[in-house]
Amino acid sequence: MSETQQILAAETEDLGGQTLSNRELLRALLRKPQFVLCTLLVFAFFLMAAVPRIFASVDPRFCELGKSQRGREPGHPFGFDIQGCDYFANVIYGARPSVLVSVVASLGGFLIAAVLGLLAGYFPGFVDNLISRTADVLFALPGLIALIVVLNSVPDRSIWIIVGVILLTSWPLGMRLMRSTVFSVRNREFVLAARSIGVPPLRILRKHVFPNAMAPLLATTTLGVGGLVGLEAILTFLGVGLQPPSISWGSQFGVAASFRDTPHLFIWPALFISTMTISFMIIGDSIRDALDPKLMR
Question: What does pTM read for this prediction?
Fold first, then answer.
């Protein structure tokens, strides 16, 4: 066997080990009952956001002022809001903004951080300096205050505007994590072997570096999804998030703050936000633990 063939064989063997590792990761996660339970809960939230009519047959905007702030009644398990609208339907329909903002911002942040982190870690010099210095500038901005200032200057705040602003301020942390991981992978044997036989850099990044460097960023991103659920609610509560007539858990918090003598207005959206946030955090913890080499032994 020639030297080139030996290098290719070693490279293929390493990639095969990575595929097997991914299968072991999935089996390890499925053996965790808390991971399975939280995954089912998250799936239910996704279904609730995508097709809310499955869960609530009542129009959330159909209101009867005579029932304003009433408690639970037959057919209305969560009672009514201040306008006499069915609160169960409002909470169900309020899931869509939270799910969209958290999931889209997390996926977008993962992709941006992964791409920029790959480039910064694999191409030291001008590319690394350009990306890293840009990240340093954004790091200098106080996160929540920057979000409030930027969103407050936008007259028409849609879900996609909020997602875009969150992405603008959140990618540097993930990029730095990915960059540091790429530094540890770029000089491993299978990457050096691919370089020596003339494999193009972008193919090396896509086929060899990214699969072996993505684990920490994936775990961190999954952990952060729950925080974005709460962030969307905070921004809407502060008046710089979604605007009426949009229905969201954050806007329900804002109304509940003015009617403290009606606790059910606060309890139900808080329960849904807490459940979704904790579910994502447990999923992230499970992925992080499964990816820990010490725990995989």
Answer: 0.77
- Round to whole Å and give the CA distance between 5 and 289: 37
7, 269 contact by CB (below 8 A): no
CB 229 within 8 A of CB 217: no
**pLDDT at position 22, please?**
64
> Could you say which residues of the chain have pLDDT below 50?
1-20, 294-297
